[in-house]
Amino acid sequence: MTTRIDPIADDIHRISTYVPEGPPGGITFNQFLVLGDEPLLVHTGMRSMFPAVRDAAASVLDPAELRWISSCHASRPDEYGALDLWEAIAPNAVPAHGFAGCFLCLEDVSDRTPRVLGDGEVLDLGGRRVRWLDTPHVPGPWEAGVLFEEETRTLFCGDLFSRTGPTDVTTVDDIVDAAIAHDQLMHGHAVTAHTGTTLRRLAELEPRALALMHGPVYEGDCAHALDALAGYFDAALLAELRTPA
Q1: Are 38 and 61 in contact (CB under 8 A)?
Q2: CB of 78 closer than 8 Å to CB of 29
Q3: Strand ranges in the chain using DSSP code E only, listed in sequence order
Q4: Rounded distance, CA 139 to CA 188, Å?
Q5: d(CA 224, CA 228)
Q6: Which of 24, 31, 23, 22 has the alpha carbon at shortest distance from 3?
Q7: Is 14 in contact with 168 (CB distance < 8 Å)?
Q8: What are phi and psi of 203, to 5 degrees?
Q9: What is the pLDDT of residues 184-234, one digit of tens each?
C-alpha cells in the first residue's frame, strides 16, 4: 500500500492510496485537500489509512489547521471512517454535509455538531468557495451529494466514475467506459428514475475537472462524460423495466 499527494489545481491536492487487495486489480482511495483560510478535507479515508493520509496531508498543511471535513456519502468507512481521528488532531474541524447525512450519520458519529449544508449552499473557505449539491442515491446512499469548487470548477464526485486498478494522477482519456465496466463488475450504483436527471444537472455546472474518489482526476470534456454516464444509466433502467419478472 502506497500513499502519495499531488497538486491538481490551485490550492487543491489529491491524496491517493493504491490498495492491491479488494476488487480485481485493486483500487485507489482518494482524499482531497482544499486550502484556504478555512481548509477543507474531502473524504477522511478509512481508519487503517489514517497515519499515511495524515502524513501526506502534513506535507502541505498542518493538520491542526483543518476547519472543515466533508465527503460525498456519510455512511461508508472510506468517506468518514477516520473522522474521530482527524477531529482529535484538528481541534476546530467540523464535519459538513447535507441534511440527510447529518441526520442519519454524522450527528451520531461525531462529538461535534455538524454543519448542515442545504442543496446549493456555498461553504466559503476564504480563498475558495465550495458548493454542496444534494444527489440522493447518485450514486448509492440516500445521503449522497457532491462538492463543487467554484473558481477552479473542480467537481468532487465521490464514487461516480469509479474504476479498479492503479491510476495516473490526472487523465484526459475517456473515463466512461471504465466506469461502466466497474459498475457491471461491482453493481455499486442505485439506479432510479432520477439518476440520469441528477447527472445532467451536474453536467450543467460545466466542470473543468472531475475529482474521482476511486480513479484519476479527469480533465477532459466533463459535461460530456456526465451526460454519457447518464445515458448509460437511463438505458440500464429501461432495460430492467422491460425485463419480464
Answers
A1: no
A2: yes
A3: 2-9, 12-19, 27-34, 40-42, 68-70, 94-98, 115-117, 122-124, 129-134, 145-149, 154-156, 170-171, 209-211, 217-218
A4: 8
A5: 6
A6: 31
A7: no
A8: -60, -35
A9: 988 878 889 999 999 999 999 999 999 999 999 999 999 999 999 999 999
